[in-house]
């Protein structure tokens, strides 16, 4: 199998096996084994941990118009409740110190959760890019093989096309 992969490297990449990078070697080995089957689509298996799933849901909700609407409605209700409705008995009067504390706590918890989700997404994107590169490399190698076969066919057909047509009686 490795011998075949070495031959494929010379034939399709035009370089020795030792000069091929890791992705090229992996593709060449897969072709030598005639595996060439596409991997599962990204996201078809959910191998995320519970924390990663929660981080993704928090990031999705925290970046939605629903969250913004609920957030603005809550702020307005808080201000209305403490400024006009409970004016004489407000639990958080005008500078709204308790509201400020709650908003600070929300921001301090939400920001790292969103960053965790973005970091995981970036790792997924890197993995997808590597898989895409390998698939593209395999396609390039297969296209080169097809070109070679077409060239061989052209070389075989050319002498036949040069012959004079056989006269019919």
Helix content: over 70%
- Helix/strand-derived category reads mainly alpha
Terminal-residue CA separation: 56 Å
Low-confidence segments, given as residue ranges, are 35-44
Structure notes:
There is one protein chain. It is elongated and about 115 Å long. The two termini are 56 Å apart. Helices cover 73% and strands 0% of the residues. The protein is mainly α and 169 residues long. It is built from five helices and no strands.
Q: Key terms for this structure?
A:
5 helices, mainly alpha, 73% helix, 169 residues
SSE layout and pairing:
Layout: H1 2-13, H2 22-32, H3 50-62, H4 65-85, H5 97-162
Helix pairs in contact: 1-2, 2-5, 3-5
Compose a concise summary of this entry.
This protein is mainly alpha-helical and 169 residues long. It is built from 5 helices and no strands.
């Amino acid at each position: 199998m490795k011998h075949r992969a070495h031959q494929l490297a010379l034939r399709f990449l035009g370089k020795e096996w030792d000069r091929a990078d890791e992705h090229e070697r992996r593709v060449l080995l897969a072709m030598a084994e005639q595996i060439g089957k596409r991997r599962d689509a990204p996201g078809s298996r959910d191998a995320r941990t519970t924390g990663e799933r929660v981080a993704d849901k928090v990031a999705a909700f925290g970046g939605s118009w629903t969250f913004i609407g609920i957030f603005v409605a809550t702020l307005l209700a808080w201000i209305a409740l403490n400024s006009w409705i409970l004016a004489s008995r407000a639990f958080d009067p005008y500078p709204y110190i308790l509201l400020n504390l709650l908003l600070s706590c929300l921001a301090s918890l939400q920001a790292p959760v969103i960053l965790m989700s973005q970091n995981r997404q970036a790792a997924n994107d890197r993995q997808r890019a590597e898989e895409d590169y390998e698939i593209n490399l395999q396609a390039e190698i297969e296209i080169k093989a097809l070109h070679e076969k077409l060239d061989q066919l052209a070389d075989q057909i050319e002498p036949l096309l040069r012959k004079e047509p056989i006269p019919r009686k």
